[in-house]
Amino acid sequence: MTGLLVSERTIVVPGEALADGMDYLPGDYTYRVGEAIYARALGLVSLAGRVLRITPLAGPYVPRFGDKIIGQIIDITMTGWRISTATAYSALLNVKDATTRFVRKTDDLSRMMAIGDMVVVKIVNVTSQRLIDVTMKEPGLHRISGGRIIRMSCQKVPRVIGKQGSMITLIKDKTGCSITVGQNGLVWIRGDADNERVVEQAIRLIEEKSHMEGLTEQVDAFLTKHAKPVVRAPESERQFAEQEEMPEEPGEEGSEREREQYTMGEN
Amino acid sequence: MMYNKQSIIELAKQSQRFDGRGFTDYRQPILITTNISKTAEGSARVQIGDTVIMAGVKLAIEKPYNDTPDEGGIMVNVELTPMSNPDFEPGPPGIDAVELARVVDRGIREAKAIDMKKLCLVPGEKAWFVTIDLITVNVAGNLFDAAGLAALAALKSAFFPVCDPETGVIDYKQKTNKALPLLKEPLPVTVFKICGSLFLDVTLEEEKAAEARLTISSDPDGTISALQKGGTAPLTLEDIERMIDLATEKAAFLRKELNRTIA
Fold first, then answer.
1. Taking CB atoms and an 8 Å limit, are A146 and B7 in contact across chains?
2. In the list A139, B3, B82, B241, which could disulfide-bond A149, CB 3.0-4.6 Å?
């Protein structure tokens, strides 16, 4: 028996054979034994090109190169900050990755970012021991002030963003809030206090019904019913708010990244 | 980890609450279930919002203390289980568990809620001792109120087990229809102070943003049996007066919820 053994979007359990033969490549949450590919997690099967991957139904966040995450400063070291990533692993932010400004050896780092501050950062390196290095030297990466942080399941993050960012754009347009979704499941919402709460409820709705069809319509109806009408900001400010681009849902064209991860693979 | 402390304080300044409730609103649902345990003499499960706690009452015959030879006694234990909150660790009770146990204990003890003299069987030799065990299932803030409510609900649902008068052996498998001699029904209500405003039924995030708290245990007639102050900020006399008004008012509200389930 060769080829694909399960169809796409079926739910598989760990150890279940997904494919046989070298025509397919093991992607996320799968592994190869001999020529067969098996599932590593309970989740939905998807096929992107030749790469088989599983979208787990639940589970912790696993840090990956290139992910934008939201973290909290938990310690200040000689050369930078230690950041809690709401996972089992903390990350290190070096001073040289935090600012372009010259920082003297004697400078007080807590004046730049203090313990307890929340930051949007991007993962630039993950070692095999899961030591994480992050950077803040890119557009859209910054210290967070105001608004609210909520925590959601990191496996549902792609649904909150939607295909080509459709869901997140809908929520932003309807509520006028600026929203930053970290891949680790922390979401920063800032806007009108009442609408911030509506966004939080909308995200909980998406989390709960993530497996259902027509979710965008449901969220649209929910927001139309509950959100306060948005007063359009002047064009100049709006551009600033929209600068924060969301990472897209890993889609059809994502196979290159998957292959990269495959070659980087754990073993 | 805690987030949103600054936002909670900013909103408090504008007389708003982070989750949109009024300052004195309790979270819904408030669910009280009694007789959840077959082995305990009395038991209850209380849910306030996402906070869930279970209480069990055990009765045993022991020798009374020397200074009160004609009285029984009570003991309260709290277990903050690691599964109920990521901040809790396994091991012997920490300072938070001990404080919670003592606040619940003091509320009941100092209100003279249980008729201790009626617990005595033979003065100086035998008396019933009441043990209240509180076990957290999910901690999402306002554990004091939930614990006090669960303890009282469990006490109200407790019945003595059958005890052989000659041998003194207790048959825990059979219950008599004799209830615990409850004289009063004290309930604790905790008022938090955040940025000058008074909050009731706080969430975990609000709890961590609070400057001070005061737990007030009161009877149906408004008699205060115990107070416990926590947090670093001082309270003014006006603060305390307002807190006591709020606490007695909300204790009546919780008591109504309790009486609705235990008819």
1. yes
2. B3
Residue type present at position B38: K
The verdict on residue A249 lying in a domain is no
For position A265, what pLDDT does the model report?
34
CA-based angle B71:B150:B75, to the nearest 5? 30
**CB-CB contact of B93 with B80 (8 Å):** yes
Q: Strand A186-190 to strand A118-126: parallel, antiparallel, or no bridges (unpaired)?
A: unpaired
- Compute the distance between CA of residue A160 and CA of residue A135 in angstroms, rounded to an integer: 24
**How many other β-carbons are positioned within 10 Å of the β-carbon of residue A23?**
11
Q: How many CB atoms lie within 10 A of CB A263?
A: 8
Q: Which of A84, A109, A144 is the C-terminal boundary of a domain?
A: A144
Same domain as A87, residue A167: no
Check: complex ipTM more than 0.85: no
* Structural domain range at position A82: 68-144
Q: Which residue has the tokens 């019904």?
A: A209
Separation CA A215–CA A203 (nearest Å): 11
CA distance A118 to chain B (A): 8
Locate tokens 């708003």: which residue?
Answer: B16
Residues of chain A with C-beta less than 8 angstroms from the C-beta of B87: none
Residue A149 is nearest to which of B4, B10, B16, comparing CB atoms? B4
Give the CA distances from residue A126 to residues A30, A131, A261, B143, B241, in Å, rounded to whole numbers and listed in that order. Answer: 20, 6, 12, 39, 56
Q: Report the residue count for chain A.
A: 267
Q: What is the CATH number of the domain that holds B141?
A: 3.30.230.70
ω into A139 cis (within 30 of 0):
no
Residue in this structure with the two tokens 């805690």, named with its chain if needed: B2
DSSP label at A85?
-
Same domain? A191 vs A235: yes
Q: What is the mean pLDDT of residues A114-118?
A: 92
In the block, tokens 């995200």 appear at: A203
Residues A13 and A48 both lie in one domain = yes
State how many domains chain A has.
3
Q: For the domain that residue A52 is a member of, what is the CATH number? A: 2.40.50.100
pLDDT tens-place string over residues B42-71: 999 999 999 999 999 999 999 999 999 999
For residue B71, give the DSSP letter.
-
Distances (CA, A) of B125 to B61, B63, B65, B166, B169: 9, 5, 9, 14, 15
**Smallest CA–CA separation between B13 and chain A, in Å?**
13
Parent domain of B16: 5-261
Amino acid A248: pLDDT: 44
The DSSP secondary structure of B195-253, one letter per residue, reads TTEEEES--HHHHHH-SEEEEEEE-TT--EEEEEEEESS---HHHHHHHHHHHHHHHHH
Residue A76 shares a structural domain with residue A134: yes
Q: Which residue has the tokens 């207790």?
A: B170
Number of domains in chain B: 1
Token pair, residue B4, equals 């949103």
Whether A147 has its CB under 8 Å from any CB of chain B: the answer is yes
DSSP state, residue A191: S
Q: Do both A230 and A165 map to the same domain? A: yes
A121 and A134 share one domain: yes
Q: Nearest C-alpha of chain A: how many angstroms from B67?
A: 51
Give B-chain residues touching A87 at CB under 8 angstroms: none
